[in-house]
Write a structure and sequence with these properties.
The chain has 286 residues and is an alpha/beta fold. It has eleven helices and ten strands. Helices cover 41% and strands 15% of the residues.
Length: 286
């Protein structure tokens, strides 16, 4: 990747150009909050917005895109099918619902949010959406190598993108290598570890060395590793700060120092036990 421009892209296996920096809108409230966040990002130069049906803010994202003054074909929109909608027919219906919520004619990247027991049938629906031109690219989230191998063996189209939790405490080098070998683009969610990276002393020291914030250092590290990155914020200044990562380069020895912070530490569920993780969260709500 030529990491010199906020609007820079990487070409996916099928030739679709995907911006390597985007705005995540997880937990951004539908309405004014998410609209202002997307407007701010697009004004700054972002061209990639990542939402999901589960976020319940697709309407606001769509409204922000339409009122931004930026042409639709210049904006890369990602959304996802949630667990409750998985399965062939239900995924097709969920996709149409997302289109209606966003009020756009196609999705640039459609992802399976989590690999439930129905994810093979769900993937077949994504293949149809891709063949029909309704989704320009398709992929998965929160998968391990065995999930990808099963898709590879049972499907006609290999995922173009894998979006997983990724940050200095959770690198999963073997999985990244697997994706490179199979031409699957790796993408990070929670690249700032939900703010916890700011507490890591080694990162504070390196950030001072480069005269950057810890967030900027970590985003740049992620991009230099070839991992697409979608930091989330609703604050214009933070959205701007997160984009100011194209005027410096982290030295190889410092990249290695950040790699060594890996502890296989997650802020979310492990893909192999996420069903029990979510069940426990639901019980705690009661």
């Amino acid at each position: 990747m030529d990491l010199t421009d906020i609007r820079g892209t990487i070409s996916l296996r099928n030739g679709v150009d995907m911006p390597y920096l985007g705005l995540g809108v997880y937990k951004s409230n539908n309405g004014d909050e998410v609209i202002k966040a997307v407007h701010s990002a697009l004004e700054i130069g972002y061209r990639h917005i990542d939402t999901a049906s589960m976020y319940k803010n697709e309407e606001g994202v769509g409204e922000a895109i339409r009122s931004s003054g930026v042409l639709r074909d210049e904006i890369f929109v990602t959304t996802k099918v949630w667990n409750d909608d998985e399965g062939y027919e239900s995924t097709l219906k969920a996709f149409e619902k997302s289109l209606k919520s966003l009020q756009i004619k196609y999705i640039d990247l459609y992802l399976i949010h989590w690999p439930t027991a129905k994810y093979i049938d769900t993937w077949r629906a994504l293949e149809k959406l891709y063949r029909d031109g309704k989704a320009k690219a398709i992929g998965v989230c929160n998968c391990m190598e065995h999930h990808l191998e099963e898709l590879k063996n049972k499907s006609e189209v290999i995922p173009m993108v894998l979006q997983n939790e990724f940050h200095p405490r959770l690198v999963q080098r073997d999985l990244i290598d697997y994706c490179k070998k199979n031409n699957i683009q790796y993408e990070a969610w929670s690249p700032l570890m939900r703010g916890k990276v700011m507490q890591i002393e080694e990162l504070k020291q390196l950030a001072r060395k480069y005269d950057k914030s810890v967030a900027q250092l970590v985003i740049r590290w992620s991009l230099q590793k070839g991992v697409l990155t979608i930091p989330k914020s609703v604050h214009k200044q933070r959205i701007l700060e997160n984009s100011q990562v194209f005027d410096f380069q982290i030295l190889l020895e410092d990249m290695a120092r950040i790699d060594m912070l890996d502890r296989e530490e997650r802020t979310g569920a492990h893909p192999d036990n996420f069903m029990s993780h979510f069940a426990a969260k639901e019980r705690n709500k009661k």
